[in-house]
Amino acid sequence: MTLGWSAVREVAVVSSAVHQVEALTFTPDVQLMVPLVNAAREAVGITQDDVDFTCSGSSDFLAGQAFSFVQTLDAVGAVPPISESHVEMDGAFALYEAWVKIQTGEAEVALVYSYGKSSPGSRRDVLAAQLDPYVVGPLWPDAHAVAALQARVVLESGAATPEDLAAVAARSQRKAVGNPNALRASADATVDGVLAEPVVTDPLRPSDLAAEADGGCAMVLAAGDRARALCERPAWITGIDHRIDPQALGLRDLARAPSAAMAAERAGAAGDRIDVAELHVASTAQAIVLSGELGLTDDVEVDPSGGSLAGDVLMAAGLVRIAEVARRISSGTADRGLAHASSGPCLQQNLVCIMEGE
Amino acid sequence: MGSLGERTAVLGVGQTEYRATRGDVSIAGLVREAALRALDDARCTWLDIDAVVIGKAPDFFEGLMMPELFLADALGCAGKPILRVHTAGSVGGSTALVAASLIRSRVHRRVLTLGFEKQSESNATWALSLPQPFSVSINAGAGGYFSPIIRQYMARSGAPELVGCMVAFKDRRQALLNPYAHLHQPDLTFDQVVEAPMLWDPIRFSETCPSSDGACAMVLGDEAAGDASEVPVAWVHGTAMRSEGNNFPGRDEVSPQASRDCAADVYAQASITNPRAEIDAVEIYVPFSWYEPMWLESLGFAEPDQGWRMVEDGSTALDGGDLPVNCSGGVLSSNPIGASGMIRFAEAALQVRGMAGDHQVDGARRALGHAYGGGAQYYAMWVVGADKP
């Protein structure tokens, strides 16, 4: 049994820094993260000495090296020693661990970061290593094939038409204009334009698939009055939850993501109107699935940054969604927002973070 | 611990047999075996578990990327939260600490935590030696990395050459009392330990840990769950994690500051001022024999440069010592890497529950679980006790 929200301590996102580009060919992970960690700390005038807990997320499979995160720790400057942890998950889950740590009362200020570089390898093939290693992985279905399988199920379920998928893609590209971290942006994007693209993996076109990016994100969290002192308008985390579904693709209705609906419910998404939502998806079909599972109504502005379709840093895209929503709340352009992060094939694991301004 | 957080109890422990190859089970079967044993020990079912926290060492060790995704089903996680921790060799310990924080924060009431490694599925030497751009691999393995640090310890402490062999012989003898231990060598003699081939001078083959398949799980619960338990529980008296950079001027690699800071933090939470007198059993992460005296000093059980004397005079032996260390046989007798830290934490809990079987320390009331990783950079520790803090 999970306890009610009455027990929770106020925690807010007080700063963040994001960088994503097509390829960081000559930039090691640690070099990527030094300016981002510095920017997040300096934005609220703190140093590592002010940070009570640090947590990061990354993947050895992307780095091509065991214990790859050990070297990236140098971006933080763990001298003198720090209280620190790492998850082999998207940074949104590192944020969750940091949020829990603050809930214990053992930390007031936390630094969270994550990063990933897909460009050195073939990401669509690498992701096949996430599948059941005995009966699915050896067939090496790549990530585009798995996404297409789901998209086909979504189309055949009647939940969407090919035009609906194209509309999601075109919307992302139009909204991404003005986002310096977007890889795929176009003010002129249209449904017809997307539908005119050749199919990559039937029924998906290039614009239906998230634009692979290299990059990272760093963020500072703070509790209660500490957050108010550090930031004029903190983005308060009023609910956060994550859930997972079994992986076996044949056992799931791929047009649904029950764990996303559960996470949204437990995070209290339906408690009040949502101004903005940022979704972490691998395909346009996943955006359609999530819209239903998260209960996003037509008046919610979805993916104002272009979302992960416009630029998707594996291991950081979920944390970037939280940063995008938090930034809009802190700037006053939104009062309440939903950020979503996912992991695994076909929206297997989902995290929902609700943030509000004061 | 402070009054803010929820009191946390270890309700159950489950371990698999540790073996070179567990060819009889899949990875899912392996983790499920440990999880079911922990649930049985805690008198729980899957329905009682709110969340799962899983840890393991590099994904390349099995060639499976983010295996928690595939394993969610086997661990009864459908519709539940699962977190995957990875903090190098300390991961088994830090995984347990993340699980403990979920209880302490009152986010959940019962959490299953588990560490595993199935090294036989892949090749650890390959996994650790992937070529990197712009850097030359020394292909020395962990022993090659740690042997110069051990040499430094020997030089500055003046420890006799055979102290490491004494540790290895003690732990292998103690492993005979632990049915789960990988290495069972009933006929091993001290001379055989000494005469074993030298791998990375001064580390002999007999002074290194084996490569094991295995999993270890615990069920952690809140105060109400601990109070209601029909079987003895272990109460968490303190938890701490520390990390430090690998390279910086003046770094003490023999007794890193992160280790000393982590120990000071966990003792302060447990109100321990004299660890040697106040702690009854110790499970420390000793992958190479010499790390026992080195950590005894760093953890405050011995004065600097004097830890080897505790080995030499038998203080750390289950049979007759006043501070028995690694009664389970330790990492030197079983090393499923991602689980090895959690085994230390779980064995500490078993000691204070009085459930350690033939390797039980009589009357143990408080115990330390310890894990480290990276280039001796990552630390996770907990103190558990028979009494509620």
Question: Gist?
Answer:
The complex is a heterodimer of chains A (358) and B (389). Chain A is an alpha/beta fold and 358 residues long.
Task: Describe, in plain words, how this protein is organized in 3D.
The complex is a heterodimer of chains A (358) and B (389). Chain A is globular and about 55 Å long. With 358 residues, chain A is of the alpha/beta class. Chain B is of the alpha/beta class and 389 residues long. Chain B has a nine-stranded mixed β-sheet with strand order 3-2-4-7-1-8-11-10-9. In chain B, helix 3 packs across helix 13. Chain B is globular and about 55 Å long.
Spell out the blueprint of helices and strands.
The complex is a heterodimer of chains A (358) and B (389).
Chain A lengths: L10 E11 L7 H15 L9 E5 L2 H4 L4 H5 L11 E4 L3 H13 L5 E8 L6 H4 L16 H14 L5 H14 L15 H5 L16 E12 H7 L4 E10 L13 H9 L9 E3 L5 H10 L7 E2 L9 E2 L3 H14 L5 E8 L5 E8 L2
Helix pairs in contact in A: 4-12, 6-11, 7-11
Chain B lengths: L8 E7 L11 H15 L9 E5 L12 H4 L10 E4 L5 H14 L5 E9 L5 H5 L12 H17 L5 H13 L14 H6 L2 E3 L2 E2 L8 E9 L1 H6 L5 E10 L13 H13 L5 H4 L2 E3 L7 H8 L8 H6 L24 H17 L12 E8 L4 E8 L4
Parallel strand pairs in B: 2-3, 2-4, 9-10
Antiparallel strand pairs in B: 1-7, 1-8, 4-7, 5-6, 8-11, 10-11
Helix pairs in contact in B: 3-13
